[in-house]
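From the shared-data thread, chain only:
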Amino acid sequence: MTRLAWLPYEDESRALAALGPLPAGLVADYYRPDGELPATIAEVEFVVADYMAPPLPMFGRVAEMTSLRAIQLQSAGYDNYLPYLRQGVVLCNAAGVHDAATAELAVSLALVNLRKLDRFARNMTTGTWAPEFAESLADRRVLIVGYGRIGEAIERRLAGFEVASVTRIARHARSEPWVYPVSELRERLAEADVVFVMTPLTPATEGMIGAAELAAMPDGALLVNVSRGPVVDTAALVEAVRSGRIRASLDVTDPEPLPSDHPLWTLPGVFITPHRGGQADAFYPRVGRLLRDQLARFAAGERLANIVAE
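Structure, as tokens:
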């Protein structure tokens, strides 16, 4: 039996260059998010979502996808696709694809803020030579909130920076390495100089870092958010940073895009990048391997990897 997939490329030649030949038993149609969808909407069984494109308009027509069995994302985050998931369809994310790039950016965000590289960069526009004493990542107590694959990748990259300690938090406690449960979040925040937030956005994690959690952080601590904006209470963060007590480096915000007049843009101690965690060329070989593997699994009738909802 031949099965049909939709792939987010302009044509077959581009898909071939990215993924190689399709596995036996699988054929494909091609689409772009801003173009017309293929006429095979009732026959498609496997959809690879375009990277960073919103679910609509495609999944606004999910009721017409009567043969759909699987949606494969190219992002680790998947919360914005859940409203379009119907019974009998599995949703797979791209866990592992963004580990390297996101971990690189997370550590970079910490270094930029601690070493005041953002201030020096702004001084370049006016030719201002203004030396300042900065802080080091060395000897800092680090907390990773959301210790999954990207959290592990962040810790590996911290190994060469001589941090004083790394503490880990996930939904449930586990050992080897020791991971604290999220129920101990405030206690662990009180012991951290640099906090990396790397947790999926779910009803349980929305607003996880609120006023009480920010208040628990020591004076001078740095919050680095590379997860999703709503995991951190924006109003509480503004107040905490405005007080001068803590600082923040953010790759994600709530709302997003952040309005040009939002106070986070101008508050001292805040550095912002526009949701670029996975936006590096390390993405391409890794996502290619994942998609080739998933297409082969689907064609063979095997269970897919990285299922996050079904």
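Helices lie at 12-19, 99-114, 117-124, 149-158, 185-189, 211-216, 234-242, 283-299.
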